[in-house]
Specification:
Elements: E1 4-9, H1 17-29, E2 34-38, E3 52-54, H2 57-63, H3 86-90, E4 93-100, H4 102-117, E5 123-128, H5 146-167, E6 170-175, H6 182-190, E7 195-197, H7 209-225, E8 231-236, H8 245-249, H9 270-285, E9 291-296, H10 298-301, H11 307-325, E10 331-335, E11 341-345, H12 366-375, H13 384-387, H14 399-403
Parallel strand pairs: 1-2, 1-4, 4-5, 5-10, 6-8, 6-9, 7-8
Antiparallel strand pairs: 2-3, 10-11
Helix pairs in contact: 1-2, 1-11, 5-6, 7-9
């Protein structure tokens, strides 16, 4: 029986998955390996009827440039007691290639340890994927899919910005991002949005809905002072990860609840929540501004990869073969800005509980400071007098005071 590799995709889709699948398949097919692609992630891998497809060269060549995933995805996370060696033995599997985020990588690591304990060791190499860009890769190396998702997000946001100018309204955009604000920051910075709100900017103060609303009002009033009655603000959905549950429930938004009594945030537009709360605040302040919500999420995940990700994912796919031939396992494949391939071992980026630590936006970097202090528009002490035409307490809406940041203009 031929030596076999298995390719498996977990979590949510990201542009470039098919490029990775196609590139991995091609390079191994050239070495006379059999290539199997698992459908539904880990869901049927250990069952009596695993769902998979045999990937040949024509299929690999056809899918590499397309969006979405040729292998159906799933967030299923098998328990240790589900593990068995059946599929791997029956198909002479030598390598498990996983494409996904930290959960997918962690499960692959558990499977590898189990197989080794059963005297059937196989290699596993992980290809880091997420549009959130929050996996701890080396500086300057994005997660694949991020650049393509950001490109589509910028395209949509520029259209929304034009709608804001045309209609004289404000738009509140929420962008995907589980804990980190890379996507919202990247889109907002590229579009020169007057307000970007990400969890990392609350590094000197506790994040709260009240502070988020103050930041939005600060930008709206500043734009009014500048003679611009419209605008767009973008908020990373990651802020919800740090908000107390009681505060979320206290918003008055109607939620559905899971079996444990927690609000199911995935069923509600985050942009809708903030837009409703902003409208209430503006009404209380008697500021006549209309605002509309826009959610950026599923629209970004299955677009065709741009040139950056087409090349990057090809290098990652071929890099899997490089690392496999060198005997590496239990690692992520990375490609640095020069295109060189390196292993990044999962044990080096996980905490004591085995959880991969997210890579956050470096809020103290020069880039972040330039964007927030140069592109953003908000109230500062020099605006207090003019702001009195809109709010009775301008200092309450001072950007630097809200965040407890040092005002660079202050002596």
């Amino acid at each position: 029986m031929k030596n076999t590799i298995v390719i498996l995709c977990g979590g949510g889709p990201a542009p470039g998955i098919n490029t990775v699948i196609g590139s991995v398949a091609k390079i191994f097919l050239q070495d006379n390996y059999r290539v199997l692609g698992m459908h539904e992630g880990y869901k049927t891998l250990f069952t009596s009827n695993p769902r998979y497809v045999e990937i040949d060269y024509p299929m690999a060549d056809d899918i590499y440039k397309t969006g979405g995933s040729a292998l159906q995805m799933s967030r299923y996370k098998p328990k240790d007691e589900e593990f068995n060696t059946n599929f791997f033995k029956e198909n002479n599997v030598k390598l498990l290639v996983t494409i996904g985020g930290d959960d997918t990588a962690g499960t692959a690591n558990r499977i590898s340890r189990f197989l080794a304990s059963q005297s059937f060791p196989i290699s596993n190499i992980h290809v880091p994927k997420t549009i959130d860009n929050d996996l701890p890769l080396p500086e300057g190396s994005p997660t694949f899919g991020y650049q393509s998702a950001k490109e589509e997000g910028v395209r949509i946001t520029q259209t929304i910005y034009e709608d804001a100018r045309t209609s004289g309204n404000w738009f509140i955009i929420s962008a995907m991002g589980r804990e980190a604000g890379h996507l919202a920051f990247g889109i907002g910075a590229a579009c020169h949005l007057p307000m970007i709100i990400i969890p990392e900017m609350f590094n000197n103060t506790q994040i709260s809905i009240e502070k988020i609303l103050r930041l939005l009002v600060s930008s709206i009033v500043k734009r009014r002072i500048l003679g611009i009655p419209y605008g767009v603000a973008i908020i990373s959905e990651g802020v919800f990860h740090f908000l107390p549950e009681e505060e979320i429930i206290a918003t008055g938004i109607t939620f559905t609840y899971d079996d444990h009594g927690h609000p199911e945030l995935g069923n509600v537009s985050k942009a809708h929540i903030f837009n409703i709360l902003l409208q209430k605040r503006l009404k209380d302040l008697k500021i006549n501004v209309k605002s509309r919500p826009v959610e950026l999420g599923y629209e970004l995940r299955c677009v065709r990869p741009i040139a950056f990700d087409l090349l990057y994912c090809n290098l990652l796919g071929m890099g899997v073969k490089v690392l496999f031939d060198q005997g590496y396992s239990g690692c992520m494949v990375t490609s640095d800005p020069t295109g060189d391939v390196h292993p990044l071992f999962l044990k080096d980026v996980t905490d004591i509980h085995g959880k991969v630590q997210p890579r956050l936006v470096n809020i103290n970097s020069q880039k972040a400071k330039l964007v927030f202090e140069g592109n953003s528009q908000f109230l500062a002490p020099e605006d207090y007098e003019a702001a009195l035409a809109y709010v009775s307490n301008p200092e309450y809406y001072d950007f630097f005071k809200i965040l407890n940041w040092k005002d660079p203009k202050a002596i």
